[in-house]
Amino acid sequence: MTTVFSVIVPAYNEERLLPRLLDSMDAARAAYSRGPGAVEVIVADNASTDGTTAVAERRGCRIARIEKRMIGAARNGGARVARGEILAFVDADSKIHPRTFDVVGETLATGRCIGGATGVTMERWSLGIVVTWILVIPMVWLAGLDTGVVFCRREDFETVGGYPEDRFFAEDVAFLLRLRRLGCRRGQRLARATAAKAVASARKFDDHGDWHYFTMMARAGTSMLVHGGRADEWMARYWYAPRR
């Protein structure tokens, strides 16, 4: 069977939460109108020291081993071994919507969109998370960028050069901006395929507190201005030294 979708999951020490994502992936593959065999799942193991690879192998995933500890490198490494015509990227601590593959396929089939993202809802809510959400969502709408399952055709991914590999964070924003510029030259846009929102993990809120985003965003803004999202010790600890 022809592989239509390649789902790339960058993973560092995700032995605990990866099965939850793969359960949701199995449900979405089973619901896909072109059959589960049209979707391959690639776990881009980013130098894990736990049982991440073993979990992925038991669940029938393909493995791409990426030694460079940078999220963009992990995403690109998974894409290099992909066989599908559509690439989809999702974080290992997420869950995807059962209709993800049909919704994304239908979105790209119109020819009006070069790619995009599904958007997310949170796995839990609190006052701090709600306030954070209220402040972040208008920026998403204004920028036309989103998160969740990020998708595009493989040929367009290769044309824009994939994800930057020198950023500790915001590599997804940089990639979508690259994709949007390519789309603009063709009269295409980025899509928000919100009929298939993913469920985002609240792990960072669990670890750092439900109001932490306000201080974190100030640090992130400073890092972007001074370092361009690159070498910044505090941001590296926030994203690359998780409590797992």
Note the topology:
Elements: E1 5-11, H1 18-31, E2 39-45, H2 52-58, E3 62-65, H3 71-80, E4 86-89, H4 100-109, E5 113-117, E6 120-122, H5 127-143, E7 150-153, H6 154-160, H7 171-186, E8 189-192, E9 198-200, H8 203-208, H9 213-227, H10 233-240
Parallel strand pairs: 1-2, 1-4, 2-3, 5-8, 6-9
Antiparallel strand pairs: 4-7, 5-7
Helix pairs in contact: 6-7
Structural commentary:
This protein has 244 residues and is an alpha/beta fold. It has one domain: Spore Coat Polysaccharide Biosynthesis Protein SpsA, Chain A (Alpha-Beta Complex), CATH 3.90.550.10. It is 45% helix and 17% strand. It has 10 helices and 9 strands. The strands form 2 sheets. A 7-stranded mixed sheet has the order 3-2-1-4-7-5-8, with helices on both faces. A two-stranded parallel ribbon has the order 6-9. Strand 1, helix 1 and strand 2 form a beta-alpha-beta unit. Helix 6 crosses helix 7. It is globular and about 50 Å long.
